[in-house]
Design brief:
Strand order of the largest sheet: 1-8-3-6
Distance between the termini: 24 Å
CATH class of the largest domain: Mainly Beta
Largest sheet: 4 strands, antiparallel
Oligomer: single chain
Order of helices and strands: HEEEEEEHEEHHHEEHHEEH
Number of strands: 12
Radius of gyration: 18 Å
Structural class: alpha+beta
CATH architecture of the largest domain: Sandwich
Number of domains: 2
CATH superfamily of the largest domain: Jelly Rolls
Shape: globular
Length: 219
């Protein structure tokens, strides 16, 4: 990470001081894909799903933003957005500032660029991993790679060595992210559960054998 705690704190303080506080219930659409974003959001608490919609009217999961992250970051910096929607997947609190205020702040406070660069690099890493998976991995390997990436961002280590992913993940979300049918995705998850690699209940995953998952991931 490039940003210091002080640099990150300065960026956060800007949002908390200048921004307007907003709360969203679970499943509330924050930015519709047909609308121009009405500001730049800092997630104070909660999780936000970024997605587009296919020609078959199915949601295609792109990334899940968590607390202490900003969205829509591409539009915030470039003014360009590609019909991406944002929905709260848990009860979420944000602080919103105008794009004009955001740009003025980052251009007059160069230290704020470090935490923004950290966020951008992390998103680049996630999207690069996704492209690699789609090109070179079988369906099961793509699902494993997806879950391991989610465990890195949202995983909580348990006393028994298991890792609990603290974000709800529907089978359809996973399927769209790894370019697979939902039925195929559900079947592969069930197979891995029978092998004892993971447990899946009510959209939450517990990774029980990280070693086995990594062993079965094509690098």
């Amino acid at each position: 990470m490039l940003a210091t705690m002080k640099q990150t704190a300065e960026l956060v303080d800007f949002f908390l001081t200048v921004g307007s506080k907003q709360t969203f219930k679970k499943n509330t659409v924050i930015i519709d894909r047909h609308d121009m974003p009405n500001g730049v959001y800092y997630i104070f608490e909660g999780m936000v799903k970024a997605y587009d919609v296919t020609k078959y009217h199915e949601e295609n999961l792109l990334v899940i933003r968590k607390n202490e992250e900003i969205f829509p970051i591409i539009w915030a910096i470039t003014g360009q957005e590609r019909n991406i929607a944002y929905r709260a997947i848990t009860d979420t609190t944000t602080y919103r500032v105008s794009r004009k205020s955001f740009l003025k702040f980052i251009t007059t406070n160069e230290s704020s660029l470090a935490p923004l660069l950290d966020m951008t690099i992390e998103m680049y890493r996630l999207h690069s991993e996704r492209i690699f998976s789609l090109e070179y991995r079988a369906v099961r390997e793509r699902i494993i790679a997806f879950l391991l990436n989610m465990s890195q961002r949202f995983g909580k280590q348990q006393d028994n060595g298991y890792v609990f992913i603290e974000v709800p993940l529907r089978h359809q979300d996973i399927a769209s992210s790894v370019n697979a049918r939902r039925e195929t995705t559900s079947r592969e998850i069930a197979i891995m559960a029978r092998k004892g690699w993971l447990e899946n209940k009510k959209s939450y995953f517990l990774l029980k054998d990280i070693k086995a998952l990594n062993k079965n991931l094509f690098i």
